[in-house]
């Protein structure tokens, strides 16, 4: 499929890009999907200015009316779910099942979720003051009200061009903010479809703006603009650090969802079939291009060899190939450069002394950026392959002796996004989970509750979103006090 050239969306107008267009490439076929607009830094600043101009009227719009826009957008996305999923699969290399169920469907669900208006104000107990130096006796009432932050720049990731931006845009708009979205350069076309749905749903001009481009100056302009009050970013820790430095200079609010190196602690009483199925999602789900993946397996010695054997067998059964074919489980990674990066990490693992149990070679496809599901055993926690985020279908296995060592190894990481615990003893699993330095812990599951707060400890991020926590993230708390 080839899309017509895409225009920028700035101030409610579809705008010609100053920098022309560039090819968006299908990772499975290496053919051009469509032409994405290359914005200039000036156009990024213009988008921020448009969002600032729209902020006042939009923030004063009744929450119910803002919610209605989001609800209509959800309906429009659902109505076009088929072609939207086809485009997402072509842009990202995701399997069709993933594009439909985990990208477009999740985006629609997130807009629908934030079409439910939450009470933004709540009562605080009156304060009774005795007579004294401050004056006569009296009663002070108070309330805390959530107010919108202002203009939010949303910098989104390439691994999910529907659910990730929807998870930022929907709660930000629900709270009365306006947004400038800077999508990942690899797959921005889906984000423009989202903007079109919001426009058709009645979002006023300037409330939603989208500017794309490969030049880092475009993103920098959208972050550094004096019109921007907050930056919401999903991506690598290194880029997040640079954004945080810029935000710090002008005290912009931040929400950072950064890298991960999820530890999967497998105790000796675990249901190994469940653990293998959960850990195996690293090989298949987005081809390992997901920060929440259980990529660092900590296996108690009594089950270590059996777990490695079962993981290797699981990986070897997964079909790698065209994501449009129904029986494909592992599609390509996003680009040739990223494939080379993942392969370099596998070679580094060999050099560090790890054993490649399965995978490690490039699948024999005529085109496409494929990486074989790879299992590295015989690893130690000081190896780079155990400490650095590879972001591909690669799992490393590290043995441990007792529970104390398992927890220590899990916490010996720069990251702390989501960890996992498998044990047949639920009390034991929860004891381990409570000691893990991670923003989330899955106990005998890799599933997520979409109302639970999401975010990381340490270098995995700042702040929490999802569910009502996202409404809090995109709001400021204002206190109002009055005499009773």
TrEMBL record:
Q: Does the keyword Protease apply?
A: no
GO molecular function per UniProt: oxidoreductase activity, acting on the aldehyde or oxo group of donors, NAD or NADP as acceptor
Q: Which organism is it from?
A: Streptomyces griseoviridis
Q: What is this protein called?
A: Aldehyde dehydrogenase
Q: Which domain of life is it from?
A: Bacteria
Pfam short name (any one):
Aldedh
Q: Which UniProt keywords apply?
A: Oxidoreductase
Q: Which family does it belong to?
A: Belongs to the aldehyde dehydrogenase family.
Q: Does the keyword Protein biosynthesis apply?
A: no
The residue ranges of the Aldehyde dehydrogenase domain are 14-480
């Amino acid at each position: 499929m080839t899309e017509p050239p895409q225009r920028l969306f700035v101030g409610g107008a579809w705008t010609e890009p100053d920098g022309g267009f560039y090819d968006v490439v299908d990772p499975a076929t290496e053919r051009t999907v469509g032409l994405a607009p290359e914005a200039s830094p000036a156009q990024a600043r213009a988008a921020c200015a448009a969002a600032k101009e729209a902020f006042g009227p939009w923030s004063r719009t009744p929450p119910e009316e803002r919610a209605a826009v989001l609800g209509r957008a959800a309906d429009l996305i659902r109505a076009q779910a088929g072609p939207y999923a086809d485009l997402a699969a072509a842009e990202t290399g995701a399997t069709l099942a993933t594009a439909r169920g985990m990208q477009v469907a999740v985006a629609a669900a997130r807009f629908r979720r934030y079409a439910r208006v939450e009470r933004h104000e709540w009562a605080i107990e009156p304060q009774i003051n005795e007579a004294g130096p401050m004056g006569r006796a009296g009663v002070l009432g108070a309330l805390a009200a959530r107010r919108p932050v202002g203009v939010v720049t949303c910098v989104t990731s390439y691994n999910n061009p529907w659910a990730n931006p929807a998870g930022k845009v929907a709660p930000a708009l629900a709270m009365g903010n306006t947004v400038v979205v800077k999508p990942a350069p690899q797959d921005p076309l889906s984000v423009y479809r989202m903007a079109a749905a919001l426009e058709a749903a009645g979002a006023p001009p300037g409330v939603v703006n989208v500017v794309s481009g490969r030049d880092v100056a475009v993103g920098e302009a959208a972050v550094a603009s004096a019109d921007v009050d907050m930056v919401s970013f999903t991506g690598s820790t290194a880029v997040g650090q640079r954004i945080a430095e810029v935000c710090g200079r002008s005290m912009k609010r931040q929400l950072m969802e950064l890298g991960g190196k999820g530890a999967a602690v497998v105790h000796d009483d675990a249901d190994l079939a469940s653990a293998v199925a959960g850990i195996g999602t690293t090989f298949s789900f987005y081809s390992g291009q997901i920060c929440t993946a259980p990529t660092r397996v900590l296996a108690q010695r009594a089950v270590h060899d059996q777990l490695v054997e079962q993981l290797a067998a699981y990986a070897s059964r997964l079909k790698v190939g065209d994501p449009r074919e129904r029986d494909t489980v592992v599609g390509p990674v996003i680009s040739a450069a990223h494939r080379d990066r993942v392969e370099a990490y596998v070679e580094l693992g060999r050099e560090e002394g790890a054993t490649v149990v399965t995978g490690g070679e490039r699948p024999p496809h005529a085109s496409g950026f494929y990486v074989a599901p790879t299992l590295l055993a015989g690893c130690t926690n000081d190896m780079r392959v155990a400490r650095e985020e590879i972001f591909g279908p690669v799992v490393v296995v590290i043995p441990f002796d007792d529970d104390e060592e398992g927890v220590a190894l899990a916490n010996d990481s720069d990251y702390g996004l989501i960890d996992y615990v498998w044990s047949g003893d639920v009390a034991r699993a929860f004891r381990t989970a409570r000691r893990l330095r991670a923003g989330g812990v899955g106990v005998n599951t890799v599933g997520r509750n979409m109302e639970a707060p999401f975010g990381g400890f340490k270098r995995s991020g700042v702040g929490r979103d999802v569910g009502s926590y996202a409404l809090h993230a995109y709001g400021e708390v204002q206190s109002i006090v009055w005499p009773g």
